[in-house]
Design goal:
By secondary structure, this protein is mostly helical. The protein is 44% helix and 7% strand. The strands form 2 sheets. Strands 1-2 form a two-stranded parallel ribbon. A two-stranded antiparallel sheet has the order 3-4. The longest helix has 28 residues, at 85-112. The protein is globular, with a radius of gyration of 17 Å. Residues 161-188 have low confidence and may be disordered.
Length: 188
């Protein structure tokens, strides 16, 4: 397995998995939760912001974690404003669930085959950069091209794709869908 420490942003993980990384270790999901950041498939929500004061939706409607099943964005916002420790605890549960779902859906896409994995990665990018594929950073384009996943100039060129609310990525080892994340062997 290939291990990478300190990488925790969903986009970075998607790219690194495509390049062959299998394991990650980072404080990002928990630290972000302590400061009111909720991880979602379309980016991070800053629940301390007054934008969420009256927002009665769950943190992420696609998430089944205890926080998303039981409290609203507005409630978490009020807990953060009151400096209640429960806010960070609930959001930590959510963020760790998000990361588990990200990795699980990525693994499922890898196991489903090269085409499914490519579609999943491109769907993840489309969710994070909905305006235009041209908004995808050049470093992401270059890294994914190296992994055999070219990013189109326009999303209309992408058929299907997307995940189940978890995020995207895939195994490396010289091609899409390989590596230990997909159950394959790698040379050390």
């Amino acid at each position: 397995p290939r291990y990478l420490m300190g990488v925790g942003y969903a986009l970075d993980i998607v790219v690194c998995v495509a390049l062959g990384v299998d394991m990650f270790d980072c404080v990002f999901p928990t630290r972000t939760a302590r400061f009111g950041g909720a991880l979602t498939r379309t980016g991070q929500l800053k629940l301390k912001s007054s934008t969420f004061r009256d927002d009665l939706r769950p943190v992420d409607e696609a998430c089944g974690c205890p926080a998303c099943r039981s409290v609203s964005r507005a409630y978490l916002h009020s807990l953060f404003k009151a400096d209640a420790p429960q806010a960070a605890q609930l959001l930590t549960m959510h963020n760790l669930t998000f990361m588990r779902n990200l990795m699980g859906s990525m693994r499922a896409a890898i196991l489903a085959g090269e085409a499914a994995y490519r579609a999943w990665v491109l769907g993840f990018l489309r969710d994070n950069f909905p305006g235009s594929a041209r908004d995808v950073p050049e470093w992401v384009r270059a890294a994914l091209a190296t992994a055999g996943i070219p990013v189109p100039d326009e999303w209309e060129a992408v058929a299907g794709g997307g995940g189940d609310g978890g995020g995207g990525g895939g195994g490396g080892g010289g091609g899409v869908g390989g590596g230990a994340a997909a159950g394959g062997e790698r040379e050390s």
